[in-house]
Amino acid sequence: MEWKPFYNNNKEGKLYVIPLGGIGEIGKNMTLIQYKDEIISIDVGLTFPGEDMLGIDLVIPDFNYVIKNSSKLKGIVLTHGHEDHIGALPYLYKEIPADIPMYGSKLTLALAKEKFERFDENVKHNFKEVKGRDKVKIGKYFEAEFIKTTHSISDTFAIAIHTPIGTIVHTGDFKIDLTPINNESTDFFKLAELGEKGVLFLMSDSTNAEREGYTMSERSVGEALQQECEKAKGRIVVAAFASHIHRLQQIIEVATNLGRKIAIDGRSMIRVVELASRLGYLKIEDNVLIDLKSVDNYKDEEIVLLCTGTQGEPMAALSRIANRTHKHINIKEGDTVIISATPIPGNEKAVYKTINRLIKNNAEVIYEKISGIHVSGHGSQDELKLMLNLVKPKFFMPVHGEYKHLKKHKDMALAVGIPEENIIISENGLKIEITKNNAKISGKVPSGITLIDGLGIGDIGNIVLRDRQHLAQDGIVIVVITISKKDGEILAGPDIITRGFVYARESGDLIRGTESLIKEELSKYKKVTEWAVLKSAVRDITRGYLYEQTKRNPIILPIIMEV
């Protein structure tokens, strides 16, 4: 195959593509397109913390470059409504002018609006609803064209950005589902039309680059769910992602066909079902939904519970059911639990812990490893090759994947005929400079992660995380010394308090030995005039003795009290 795209615009210039997230990782997707004095962003997503990020709630991109250049930011275009693509929007809009427009589908903007409302009602936004095949002018240099694709959520777009030097295409998350639940299939015509006219640069989803063949259609899940639910004799508990509206629709249809009532649990599930029903994305017959509190008023064979907790989250509904701490549902023999999802890498241990507890409580548990009740929302290798053949880009950059996924996607691009020198594997923060005839990495902007802990945004850094890990591993020892406010004389102490290090009542010899050494040091001070010197001496003595006795390194916290 010979790749000779045609470009309508002959203007010279340089365009920059700057990923701030989503490269070398799956999550916090955000990519900037910059031409001269104007910038647009594709998505503003978040990710969830790893096991080493103790106490962290969310992880978002580093917005410093965007905030510094907020006067150049002319718009944000959204591919779809998943957290890893829209979840960080409120945090960004807290720092940039509220009138910067945000373009997305009806469902995507509805989900985004909910995030703004839960974040801070004082943070404003400027929503602009678009539909498939819409084109919108953004600033002087950009025109965004929205192209319908299929994924695991409704209203998903690939986005073509028409610029003075050529067309940039970002696929967003996609799969090629030829029998989609909502009968809204991928707009092959538009993708092929773009490819025929000439696409300068393509960024494409790499999540399933290691999987051969095609990803199965979402409809196959409905058939598997029907079969499993028909076999169930008692109550059915189905756990699914709240945002997977096509999956929720199939679960609702199966329950309705079997004459079962549906109770919903989990805050995100309740919110999404209410929102999607109101907007017409979920169709639920009258009198099918019942209140969770009324489940016991029905026979077991009349009930389906739809809930959250597919990833083993400790406070999610399914985990509470498995732990027998749920207020309304206790698992019993005869119940069937269906987990309609696959574990996200890193969550496997928590998921299988939940499965084992459910089985121990005599439930029949159906999960993805041994059934067909889940399919991915991302395209496999043949779909990725099909996208490359439809769009026919001159330059290509795989996105939305770990490095191994990006490398595998590069191999596929080579196989369909894109020259190796025209393929870029990037990193977050790198500036890819694009002209009509060349694409290369030409610099770097500030990038990385910002950690969210409660109301704190970015106030938790590596040092705090290190201390949290230290506390988790070795605990803390507090040494309290009391001195006279009047003359600095040592009045009492040391008093030793431990948390997470040893149990004081069972470690009397260790505590007494520590106190003895510290008292010996304190005897050198008739008066305390330099607190820092005393604290340092106490810390060093305590650390050395405790390590010698236990081979552990707790945090040592000397406290001097004046009375």
UniProtKB/TrEMBL annotation:
Q: What is a single cellular component term in the Gene Ontology annotation?
A: cytoplasm
SMART domains per UniProt: Lactamase_B
Sorted alphabetically, the keyword list is: Calcium, Cytoplasm, Endonuclease, Exonuclease, Hydrolase, Metal-binding, Nuclease, RNA-binding, rRNA processing, Zinc
Where along the chain is Zn(2+) bound?
Answer: H80, H82, D84, H85, H151, D173, H400
Q: What Gene Ontology molecular-function terms does this entry list? A: 5'-3' RNA exonuclease activity; RNA binding; RNA endonuclease activity; zinc ion binding
Q: Supply the enzyme class, top level.
A: hydrolase
- The organism sits in which domain of life? Bacteria
- Indicate yes or no for the key word RNA-binding: yes
Q: Which residues form the active site?
A: D205 (proton donor), H378 (proton acceptor)
Q: Where is the protein localized?
A: Cytoplasm
* GO biological process terms held by the UniProt record: rRNA processing
The Metallo-beta-lactamase domain extends over: 27-225
Q: How does it assemble?
A: Homodimer, may be a subunit of the RNA degradosome.
Instruction: Supply the name of the protein.
Output: Ribonuclease J
The gene for this chain is rnj
